[in-house]
């Protein structure tokens, strides 16, 4: 591939406002799934149930929106579902000492089956459910900002959940690094014994972290079923719960890192659609890239940490 | 003798917990059915009848259980070497696609072709387990995250293969059919009557052979002993005499290999060609079956057959009574919730013990790690009095 082709591809696929908007939209559920992974990871818990939590959040958002005829009720329905699953997950894994990965797999299989079952028994249809009575989120134009050239197009015209997600990234960063609660959370994740000695209630912090992860995942589900589409489709989480773990790893466990690496995933997603339309290269290799990059990053971080540890050990000796 | 008694007590205790968990899951399941306007007793009767009540049901049970036995044994072997192999899912797929290629691309007599195809499946699965294993053993990278990533890479890689280089059909992404010389015969193909209405195939004997071999390795050989020791050493960290790296890696590779073998057996017996993403979830269900069976070879085999039976029953339930077959995954999920919740059963046990010893409840706050649990147990005990 020579330079001019590359330039052509760049100008068509990257430096193009519609594409950047697409990337920001597609990244939104990934950011939320990433925050779900982040908040539990920071509390020292490996939560692989994100996938199932997203599905339940998406389903209950659609159900609430359909029965109450309001997108905000849909949002509320999704959040409540996320809180309930999070609380059950925390109760079983923390208080009843169930193996956290076992619980994660069980929740994922359970949620997948339960949402299909519910769609069939509540709405009487198979495969998915759409109906004009489901109220989704509309695009919001921000006054003044929308009139600024370029920036207006980039920042305005998204659905409510997109703005909420941006806010949550900032709020999570503030919470983690600027509040005593955030400090406690990080202490619990880094060294639970030391945190315990400091008088931090490790169990309570972890319980709350798991519940918060349920809400983040459910919001990702709400975005999928009421923002991205207006309706429920079986298995609509499509692996985003696991992608959330990937972006959290790739983003180094920091909210801004999660946001930026989600943009990478969103970009790849968007590129996949475009390349598929133009039949340049098979999309599967593009879709595979984020996972390979995450594996590489994971290896790199681990080697660096090991080296630092070894250096520290030799210095001591 | 006392060792025997101890192990019997362990099995009894585990069976008791499993029984209670199933009972609770059945209860919760009944509530779901009642809300959904089905008669639970009728549904459970149909479920069991569908799974075990007719020859046809039994054969479908066998068909559904065959791949699960492989994935459950693969998970069990990994558990025993101290690893949670979430990657069984991806290893199953890769074994299936590599085996499928050997199955359709070559022409040779069946005596060579079939074993070669099975071997290719085994090697494919083992190769897919290699990277996460080495990452874990050499660098200490968490295998759960890496195997989740490799599962996804596997599904995209296979989507590519079935859509481009290996694609044979213009309408759907699927490979050419495997040669007759590489197929595992279905019972119905051997005799017209035996196994009618199912796709059960002789792969079940391969599955059972794997079970027997693994049981023998764990019970009677140095290798099995070393695998178990490596699993323990992940907990105790201090260990001598065994080449830890090599033993651990061999355990994980064989685990991946068994998963891959399961994938190709499913293809050669049931599908005869690779349809893109033909069997999502066999790996995860194998993980669960292994857990249900207490991470033992025999236990996870029984659990896999039971799980297969429930799926077979659920299929006939869907055809017969219009109850969505997903009901069974809901119930198995619930069984796992209750069974995994050791603490919940401890709590009951402690309450009984406390009641027996005259309400002599443990003092609250002695161990800072679980103060809430202790006080609650004490409070409950006092109430029970």
UniProtKB/TrEMBL annotation, chain A:
Decide whether keyword Transferase is in the record: no
Q: Which UniProt keywords apply?
A: Cell membrane, Membrane, Transmembrane, Transmembrane helix
How does this protein lie in the membrane?
Multi-pass membrane protein
Q: Which CDD domains match?
A: TM_PBP1_transp_TpRbsC_like
Q: Which GO terms describe its cellular component?
A: plasma membrane
Tell me where it mainly resides: membrane
Compartments it resides in? Cell membrane
Q: Which GO terms describe its molecular function?
A: transmembrane transporter activity
Annotated membrane-spanning segments are 20-40, 52-69, 75-94, 101-123, 157-177, 207-226, 246-268, 280-301
Q: Which domain of life is it from?
A: Bacteria
What is the name listed in the Swiss-Prot or TrEMBL entry for this protein? Uncharacterized ABC-type transport system, permease component
Automatic annotation (TrEMBL), chain B:
Q: Name one GO cellular component term.
A: plasma membrane
Q: Which UniProt keywords apply?
A: Cell membrane, Membrane, Transmembrane, Transmembrane helix
Q: Reply yes or no: does the keyword Transmembrane helix apply.
A: yes
Q: Kindly give the membrane topology term recorded for this protein.
A: Multi-pass membrane protein
Q: Which residues cross the membrane?
A: 12-35, 86-106, 112-131, 143-161, 200-218, 248-268, 288-307, 327-348
Q: What residue spans carry the region label Disordered?
A: 357-385
What InterPro entries is this protein classified in?
A: ABC_transp_permease
* Residue ranges the record marks as coiled coil: none
Task: Tell me the domain of life.
Answer: Bacteria
PANTHER family in alphabetical order: ABC TRANSPORTER, PERMEASE PROTEIN, GUANOSINE ABC TRANSPORTER PERMEASE PROTEIN NUPP
What is the name listed in the Swiss-Prot or TrEMBL entry for this protein?
Answer: ABC-type uncharacterized transport system, permease component
Q: Which organism is it from?
A: Levilinea saccharolytica
Source organism phylogeny: Bacteria, Bacillati, Chloroflexota, Anaerolineae, Anaerolineales
